[in-house]
Amino acid sequence: MRALASQLTTYFCGRKPVSAQSRNFCSSYHGRDERSLEQEAERKIGWVLKLIFAGTATVVGYQFFPYLGDNLMQQSVSLLHVKDPLFKRMGASRLARFAIDDERRMKIVEMGGAQGLLNMLGAAKDDRTRKEALKALLALSRSDEAVGALHDAGAISLITSTPDSAEDVEVERFKSNLLKRFQDLRYEASS
């Protein structure tokens, strides 16, 4: 360990450690210097090992966490079917965060998330619940296939019949963006 510490000290500090033979004959050498050098080298090695561990944990985490996403999506869809509006809002908020690419958006639609969000929007009694439902529907509508599934589920008539909010401007913004998205893809309310 002492040899490794002296090599690392030479590498990191740039000064050459005192050899054992010259140490015995040198009057200016102090034993405390060696101990402080060893402690410094051990501290630096400790940080290197911590960084290696943190990097390995990060890589492993990025490999395994995508597999946990399906269970979380299913739980979020299940939250939409609970009676409590708080849990419905939590489920809708999670689904909005999960809808980051077309594959995940379609997975949410296949799990029944789109229909659950539409049911949530239709049964919502307060602006916060409507806002979260519209926000999640807007996140899903970034996929053309998901917009088609929403249209087939009757989303246009439900969105247009959603009452306007006097307090929350975002409800109006989400609502108009959703209707604009349907118009851009040539979906009509009557079809």
UniProtKB/TrEMBL annotation:
The keyword Cell wall biogenesis/degradation does not apply. InterPro entries: ARM-like (IPR011989), ARM-type_fold (IPR016024). It comes from the Eukaryota. Signal peptide: none annotated. The chain crosses the membrane at residues 44-65. The keyword Membrane applies. Keywords: Membrane, Transmembrane, Transmembrane helix. Gene3D superfamilies: Leucine-rich Repeat Variant. This is ARM repeat superfamily protein. It comes from Ilex paraguariensis (yerba mate).
